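Hi R.,

Here's the chain you asked about this morning:
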Amino acid sequence: MIDSGPDCLGDEVVASMTGMPQDTGNAAPAAGAIPQGFEPVEVVLCRISMTDMLQEPSPPDLIPRLENFGTGESIPDIPDRGDTDLLQRLTVEEVTLAGDLNPLLDALARKSDPPSSGACMAMLEIQPAIFLVDAAGRAVRPLWPVDGCGFLFEGARESLDLLAEGDSTVYEIDQCIGRCSTEEAD
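And here is the predicted structure, written out as tokens:
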């Protein structure tokens, strides 16, 4: 889907960079295939450059080990920390990349492998969050092709390293990483 421009602050983009859900109501265009006839002239790379905790959670209450209790003694209840809001401040950087886009476009044009029915390595891979931008400033959020285990193909990430960094814009946003109040204060 072609959008009016790149948006590194879209909920899906932030979630893809952090691995944590983001729900501010700022929807990003769905990642997908590059539409036929769309001719990108640059790339916008979205990246997280720093995070700060805004609110420390309460220190945990120590719960004695079960073997420290004799028979017949009551075991204390585990305290409920459900009222603790925990936010992190994210610094999101929107970086323009320019140069020969052909290696990147070739990497994005590959077909994903079918899901593997065998064993896959248990690891998390954060795929680069990018937008392809045409001469009119319109943007497409491409879907990275992956192998049968859901990992980027060899050389895909490196195709971004061939591009030169240009202008960048920095934004700060808050992301809920614990129970966060949804009710507005009166």
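One quick note: The beta strands are 2-3, 40-53, 87-98, 129-134, 139-140, 164-176.

Cheers,
M.
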